């Protein structure tokens, strides 16, 4: 039995749906499950290149079908990650917010129509199954835990008018015991408080990283006023009191400096979250008698909380779904339906999530690298792990792209940026050359599974932490050895690597250990600060060329940047991504003067406006991916060398922000790239087939 699980929004990448709140439709994904086994899975963001994509997962769906070599007509069930009632209510809200721009249509019809349009055929509505959101979360963790008996807890912001559930798993059966209403949402509680720190949705992990720099006692009383612990593991959240806390601190503006006040608020918030969760878990452990725990939901990405649970001794084993956020609901929905249809198969413990796009065979990689010969040199390495280990030991930062991409938010050794974990300065080096992020945020260590206990204080009875989702203690005598990956509180977000699940990355770690005596590397996701983790070979090369990375290891090849000029960049073909639009506007630029200006906007963030020069704007209006920047500028009348150079340098800056796409002439386009000119203001929906 083939089941396709889906999560995500209502519009395609080129369509605008600004009025749908991101917390309803973020993290789109598709997962194809065959008789209970995952055969393909990828987040839509990896393909359409929109972080936390709130778009319909059509590219992800196409990928899953292609990887299995099947047509949509061969899929038995299409599982969506929310209840039908909730989806219909959401559509009603969207129709109201858009002033009726969305046709009056039910969720089942719309889902069949969107999928049908994207795949070019009619979809049978009866094959669609709506899976309650938190039941999808629950299935995603329990059915892949390897446990036959477990407590299951899903905690997030919201979904299906709820914010979580408690269930028990016994054999192949999941029984829901209770649910949490939105009023008790720990995810929304966390976001409400971090707004005082200049952060919002998707920034929760940043505050988790900031918390160890603060003293939770300073605002413990004020934070305690925001919740009440009740008997029976219950609790109440008082979000209406967050304003009172705002009166007692200096609210940080986004991008502003951090004060000790902000650090202390982060610490007290993290403590509050852990207090509430442990209060609920202790009660459920007692009343259910379950000695194992399965966690999912966005709050389960709080790795510090997970570590505290693992160390608490409350449970003999703790399994956290590595894609605990809403993308994991695509996986859970497919598994839930497979279970209901009696087609689950075996329930082995999840050992890896390498279900995405392959970076390519040797010939494909060679072709991609050769196309960029003006910009980089490359060679095939007979001993790639050994060569890369030498580079890392000598102080280089290396982009590492191998095999199939990871499902979920973590780079687990297939799409990673790597560095020597020993010098503390390497943390600042990676931040400066690639991430451009807050300096306080830690990087994770990847370690040989067999050597993990030498470096970390692992909880009793568990030696493998393959998904980088637990913060654990670094042994005190090894913290200086892991200077770049040990956080200020002596912890690290540990990623253990087994030879069986990830042989090539294991081989690299072993080679680095042979040279340095240290069986670990600094590992962070291969992307810059404005893009999702890289997926294709083209993504890999683009990220490499627009960051300060020293070397690239892709497949069996090692690449190094050449010194290239603006004239080299001018030879590249210019393309507008599907999610970008160019607006040409006549507006006043001074009290007494109007002018024509060009702005770049996108289809998912109404607040984004990037002004570009007239020369660049004219070039972008003509860009269709088939002509070079130089040719487009010449057409726009900017063929004077000084003027052309300025425009090319501006385009290169837009490239680093992923607002334009560049590639050598004649190279194939990526899925995220459009057909050139596109300017549209209204919501666009296709005719619906009912």
TrEMBL record:
Its EC number is 2.1.3.-. Keywords: Transferase. This is Carbamoyltransferase. Pfam families: Carbam_trans_C, Carbam_trans_N. Residues 389-561 form the Carbamoyltransferase C-terminal domain. Belongs to the NodU/CmcH family. PANTHER family: NODULATION PROTEIN U. Transmembrane segments: none annotated. One of its GO terms (molecular function) is transferase activity. Residues 22-335 form the Carbamoyltransferase domain.
């Amino acid at each position: 039995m083939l089941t396709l699980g889906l999560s995500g929004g209502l519009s395609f990448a080129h369509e605008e749906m600004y009025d749908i709140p991101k917390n309803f439709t973020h993290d789109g994904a598709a997962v194809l499950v065959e008789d209970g086994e995952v055969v393909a899975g990828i987040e839509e963001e990896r393909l359409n290149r929109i972080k936390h994509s709130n778009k319909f997962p059509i590219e992800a769906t196409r990928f899953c079908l292609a990887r299995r070599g099947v047509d949509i007509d061969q899929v038995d069930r299409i599982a969506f990650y929310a209840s039908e009632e909730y989806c219909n209510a959401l559509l009603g809200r969207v129709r109201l917010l858009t002033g009726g721009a969305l046709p009056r249509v039910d969720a089942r019809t719309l889902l069949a129509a969107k999928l049908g349009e994207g795949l070019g055929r009619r979809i049978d509505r009866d094959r669609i199954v709506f899976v309650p959101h938190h039941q999808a979360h629950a299935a995603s963790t329990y059915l892949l835990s390897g446990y036959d008996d477990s407590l299951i807890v899903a905690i997030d912001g919201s979904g299906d008018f709820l914010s979580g559930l408690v269930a028990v798993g016994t054999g192949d059966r999941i029984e829901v015991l209770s649910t949490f209403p939105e009023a008790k949402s720990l995810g929304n509680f966390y976001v409400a408080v971090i707004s005082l720190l200049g952060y919002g949705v998707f920034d929760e992990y940043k505050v988790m990283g900031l918390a160890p720099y603060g003293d939770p006692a300073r605002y413990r009383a004020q934070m305690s006023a925001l919740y009440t612990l009740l008997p029976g593991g219950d609790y109440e959240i008082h979000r209406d009191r967050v304003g009172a806390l705002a009166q007692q601190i200096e609210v940080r503006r986004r991008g502003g400096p951090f004060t000790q006040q902000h650090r202390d608020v982060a610490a007290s918030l993290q403590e509050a979250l852990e207090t509430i969760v442990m209060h609920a878990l202790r009660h459920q452990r007692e009343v259910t008698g379950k000695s194992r725990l399965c966690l999912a939901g966005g709050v389960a990405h709080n790795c510090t909380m997970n570590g505290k649970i693992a160390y608490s001794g409350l449970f003999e084993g703790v399994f956290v779904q590595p894609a605990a956020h809403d993308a994991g609901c695509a996986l859970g929905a497919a598994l839930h339906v497979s279970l209901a249809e009696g087609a689950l198969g075996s329930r082995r413990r999840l050992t890896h999530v390498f279900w995405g796009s392959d970076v390519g065979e040797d010939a494909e990689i060679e072709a991609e690298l050769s196309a960029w010969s003006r910009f980089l040199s490359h060679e095939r390495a007979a001993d790639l792990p050994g060569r890369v280990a030498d580079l890392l030991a000598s102080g280089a930062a290396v982009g590492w792209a191998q095999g199939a991409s990871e499902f979920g938010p973590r780079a687990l050794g297939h799409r990673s940026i790597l560095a020597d974990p020993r010098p503390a300065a390497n943390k600042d080096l990676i931040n400066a050359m690639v991430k451009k992020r807050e300096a306080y945020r830690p990087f994770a260590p990847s370690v040989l599974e067999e050597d993990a206990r030498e470096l970390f204080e692992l909880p009793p009875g568990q030696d493998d932490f393959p998904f980088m989702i637990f913060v654990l203690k670094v042994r005190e005598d090894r913290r200086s050895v892991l200077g770049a990956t040990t956080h200020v509180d002596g912890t690290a977000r540990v990623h253990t690597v087994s030879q069986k699940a990830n042989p090539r990355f294991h081989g690299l770690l072993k080679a680095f250990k042979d040279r340095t005596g240290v069986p670990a590397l600094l590992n962070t996701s291969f992307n810059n600060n404005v893009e999702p983790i890289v997926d294709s070979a083209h993504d890999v090369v683009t990220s490499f060329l627009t960051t300060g990375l020293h070397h690239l290891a892709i497949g069996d090849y090692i690449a190094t940047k050449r010194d290239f000029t603006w004239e080299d960049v001018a030879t590249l073909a210019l393309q507008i991504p599907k999610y970008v639009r160019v607006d040409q506007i006549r507006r006043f630029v001074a009290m007494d003067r109007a002018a024509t200006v060009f702005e770049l906007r996108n289809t998912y963030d109404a607040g984004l406006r990037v002004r570009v020069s007239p020369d660049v704007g004219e070039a972008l209006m003509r860009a269709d991916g088939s002509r070079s920047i130089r040719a487009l500028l010449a057409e726009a009348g900017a063929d004077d060398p000084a003027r052309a150079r300025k425009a090319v340098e501006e385009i290169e800056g837009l490239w680093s922000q992923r607002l334009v796409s560049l590639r050598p002439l004649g190279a194939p386009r990526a899925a995220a790239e459009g057909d050139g000119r596109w300017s549209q203001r209204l919501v666009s929906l296709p005719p619906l087939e009912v």
